[in-house]
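Reading a protein record of the kind used here takes only a little practice. An example makes this concrete, so a full record is given next.
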Amino acid sequence: MYYLAAYLLKIILSLFGRINVYQKENAAIPGGFVIACTHTGWVDILWLGVSMLPKKIHYMAKKELFQSKLLKWLMERLNAFPVDRENPGPSTIKVPRRLLAEQKVVGIFPSGTRTSEEVPLKRGAVTIAGHAKVPIVPVAYKGPNNFTDLFKRIKPSIIYGKPIYISEHLPRKQAMEEMMVQLNQELSNLQNRLDELN
């Protein structure tokens, strides 16, 4: 179901303009890892999944999207799993840690709320990657954000940054703080790089 939906989406989205994908080789790493992508609308979620093909992404999604039977059915077939953003607890990282242990890719939008402004990153991506001892691949997106933007034929672009690994030479708390700083800086750098390329 995932591949059917993803390749169908690729065809549909390409009707509005083909995407430029830069530095995808940075995601060609063995084993499981976390993808942390900038988030400005629902279209970036779709393009991120399409750009990663044939690799699958397992998305963290807010639990509200699973309340409708139809949406729950669709989200599960797109490899999404629910998370309670208001009351995160130990169970929040249980599913992504299992997926990463199975050498799968977990997609997280660390800014949380969709926004075009720079906002402080939430800690989910770093917490999960740190506990699972896997790298984070930072990704920035620029392009249409919603249904209306698609018809404006705004050119979409995605750029992959180099994997960020947690330091093994620092205490865990300090290493995760350092990883957080690196991720924040790299996402900003990648967004600026996209502005230069387009």
About this structure: The first helix runs from residue 2 to 14. The first strand starts at residue 20 and ends at 22. The chain is about 40% helix and 15% strand. The helical segments are 2-14, 42-52, 69-77, 94-101, 124-132, 147-151, 172-197.
